[in-house]
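Annex B. Sample input.
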Amino acid sequence: MDQADISGDGFKDIIICFDYGNTIIDFNPDGGLIVWLENPGKNMSTEPWKQHYVGKSATMHRLKIGHFTQAKRWEIIGMPVVNGPFDVPVPVLLFRQPDDVLTAKAWDCEIIDKDYFHLIHDAKMFKVHLLDNLFIASREGLTWLYYNENSGAWIIEKIADGEQGEKQQTKYYGSGGVDIGKFGSDTFGYIVALEPFHGNVVSIYTKATNNSLTQIKWQRHVLDVYGHPDQNGEGPGHHIICADFDKDGNDEFLVALRGPAPNEGVFYYKPIDLSRGLFVKWKVSGESAARITVADFDNDTFIDFATIGYYVPGYYTAENPSINIFYNRLASKTLQVKNDLKVTKQNDELLFTVPRPNKVLQYHVLPFLTIGNITLSLEVLPPYSSRQVGKNTYIKVLSGIITWKDSSNKSRQPVNHSRTFLCKPKSACSLEIHSDDNRIKTGSEGAIFIVLQLPKDMYDIPRFDNIQKVMIENSLSESSPEDARQLAFKFVKVDELEWGKEKFKGLEFYNMRGFNIKFTDNNEHLCHIQLWAAGKGTNAGVHNHNTDRFCEVHTCIVNGNGNSGMHYLKSSEDSYDPLTTSEAEFVKLVVPSLHEHGPLWDINSRQEPVLRQDGTVVYPWHKWQSGGNNSSDSLCSKIPSARSLAMSGPRALTVNASMLKATPQRRRCASASQQSFDVWIAFEFNANLSKLFE
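Annex B, continued. Sample output.
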């Protein structure tokens, strides 16, 4: 269906196609009629819409009215979906407006192309100079169709192949839906596609090169995969449409899912960073949706949308198909979410105030530190939302839960994974995300986390033989307060600090403070963060936090000596004497690069930290011990694959080192005489918020 003022009386008329048949297999060979319905205008309340015949072609499915070859008269491009078996090309037809449009028995018709297209499902019309052009979504992928005035010929240009991954398991591939998103002043900011025919894949295409339309190279990013193809090889996706719903100057887009649940309804996607293909999304409807239309239905200047449910026997029939209007209330919500994530300078540290993740309404991201070319950003993801995770992306959760599915196992069956702010007690776990659809998702609680983003072309974890080579930069954006952006971060040798002058004199042991995170609503403390670095063989100090009211875990950025990690006594009741307690009494837990370790503190039956009477947390005696004294254990990492090193105990060091040696993505890097630094982050969590998830 489309609309235009065909009669020329100032009122919009409607163009429709119908009598398609039952399915693309069982279609009506004499159907595919195109008519236009004349708007009665001022007499709408008393006169019916008059039907005028245009033409027909079997399985006529999509049409667009515009000015494709000239700008004086209307033209309709009609696109059947099939022409018999799927391998038979589909004709694309042009219908020209007759001299007397009110009395003509039909419109003149010509074939634009009859050899190229197969299984056309949708098209997007856009204007180049004075003429209208089409992006067509078909089995060929995305194709640009336009008329060249100079040559007098129709031009077909391939834009993208679309989805090819399901080609082996279904009969469908290519693209099934397409629209164009405006971003800033660029009316061709990105292309969004639903792939393939009746597909389950949501993709966007961003500009790899920013040239003229004929020379643009497009890069594909898969945002989501909704379920798996059904017995007919089809997914739940049926329509996609772009509009600037929140008036920020950038187009968002909506995806219509026909069902069944949970892949049913409408999802709203908002662009965050096109260069990385980064969008956030919300589910804005749970009703089956076949098609979406947009308009300002309540005249408040904000774009609303309406849907019609999907009920087509032979494909999918929703239980209660209905027509629904959804009114845009983003204006009021935008006021609530503005500047929810803030940063200020507090003495020689940064203070972040964050919203509760279960109440936040939009995604927030704030890069704040780059260390060794690894950028750290603090992020808040709302409930029931998702975030893309690309290559070399590692995530440390601070609050809430993130989930993903991974089929990269021996059985090749998808396995559900989840991550909270704490991994299994006294174990080491990878921060890597290996997700089938390259996304993490949240449930009802949302999530706060720190992303450690390595450059995409980085294959080796950086190694530092001198602390001066650990380059540290403040990465706050220009929108942050100037005094916060000017704050310089550096490692300070611990024996230069008042508390470390005697105990750590002469040791290659360094500290960098630091960052505090508090909740915006009531100033409740979430955690304090500081960084540490230690050279080969450094004992970072045995302690048991007997004066501290926090729950501390560590994330290792660089395990420069391969076998460094946490050493702890088996029980909090075991005493420690620096003169008599031997190294053999410590349990050794290796924490590889880009891994974290779980709680070392005592935990009660309610999964809460055990507290002393004064509120301090009960720990066994423990320390960070840099390894590498034995050159046979001195290893440095390539980017690690996801692996949970949950082993601890007396054999942990030997077994973990053996595992590292056996892994192809590891290599020897330092002899016993070479210096090599560990770099890690200490997270000191509020003990009142440190209950383990059961």
